Amino acid sequence: MTTDKRENNKQKVIFSGAQPTGSLTLGNYIGAIQNWKALEDQYECYYSIVDLHSLTIRHDPKAFRKSNLSFLAQFLASGLNPKKNVIFFQSHVPQHAELGWILNCNAYLGELNRMTQFKEKSETHKDNINAGLFTYPVLQAADILLYKTNLVPVGEDQKQHLELSRDIAIRFNNTYGKVFEVPEIHMTKVGGRIMSLQDPTKKMSKSDEDANGTIFLLDDDKVIIKKLKRAVTDSENKVNFRDEQPGIKNLMTIHSKLSGMSMEQIENEYEGKGYGAFKNDIGEMIVEYIQPFKEKYNEYMTNEDYLEAIYKQGAERAREKAEATMKVVRKKLGLVKF
Ligand code: ATP
Ligand code: LTN
User: Fold this and answer.
1) Residue 94 contacts by C-beta under 8 Å, 6 or more apart in sequence?
2) Which of 23, 80, 157, 208 to mutate to test the pocket of ligand 1 (most atoms within 8 A of CB)?
3) pLDDT for 51-74, tens place per residue?
4) Is ligand 1 within 6 A of the CB of residue 28?
5) Which candidate in 128, 155, 226, 228 could, as Cys together with 283 as Cys, close a disulfide (CB 3.0–4.6 Å)?
6) pLDDT tens figures, 24-53
7) For the domain 211-298, what is the CATH superfamily, name and number?
């Protein structure tokens, strides 16, 4: 990339977020965070721990506080550089909630009713289908639009939410005059949807009740090898990248993302070998790949002062940008200046 191009892109803004519930999964890492890192040199990047979004699910406040700090340590251990990226807690920038309300008044029930994540979450949390769960995607739109974001690196499951954010941005701009950029989605070509190891038709998820389907980056090495061994495959006994073998297809995707090998190279490598060797190799590859992550994580977790300095500094920078946008939004809406 020429210096000119880099300078141009620096003007462009990236925003993404992850909910601080449980711990990061291999799906989060491959589908989103690996991409975040790749963008940090070329763009102005905002990466947020979206703690307000997590309130849509019932939680234990004491465990939640721990989990929040743990997530910050996991972001840093993933290699995100706090000097190059603005890393912060969503709740430390009150403008998110403020814009969230304003955008609620510009989002239609009909469009929120179509959101598949809402339908899924209301199925799994039948006892607590709260209004926040319903308007979750509007707060997400606020997260994104507040920074005049151009590009949002996310996994495939977030495509629908991103389309809604774009629609809301266009609607607001048309009604009140241009304030927001219309954000583009940024997805990895391979690995945008890592599937559950137990059910390759379902996405690998942090909140899956069957933990055997999900690799957590903080899982024990032995647990990782075991989860791979138990991964659901088929009776073909051929390592082939095809839709008819969803389990193998998913494992090949993980292999390819970690080894850098093409699907064809992987097929050749395992020709005539059983699934046992294939699964074992992937297990070992994951263990090796996340070893540095675990070491860094443990280091960060022993240094709460450092974590505090990072999140305070991040929030300060984020608030500055967010408030500049909000000043324009309030003016456009006819709210009296304070
Ligand atoms: P939950 O399971 O509780 O819904 P989640 O892991 O899907 O959690 P987040 O932590 O908010 O949700 O997601 C962070 C990022 O990781 C998002 O960009 C999301 O699209 C991406 N992501 C999540 N799961 C996967 C997956 N299985 N494959 C690829 N990307 C994923
Ligand atoms: N909804 C996302 C998390 C999220 C997000 C965002 C992602 C909240 N706000 C803004 C990108 C941009 C999820 O569940 N994965």
Assistant:
1) none
2) 157
3) 999 999 999 999 999 999 999 999
4) yes
5) 228
6) 999 999 999 989 999 999 999 999 999 999
7) Tyrosyl-Transfer RNA Synthetase (1.10.240.10)
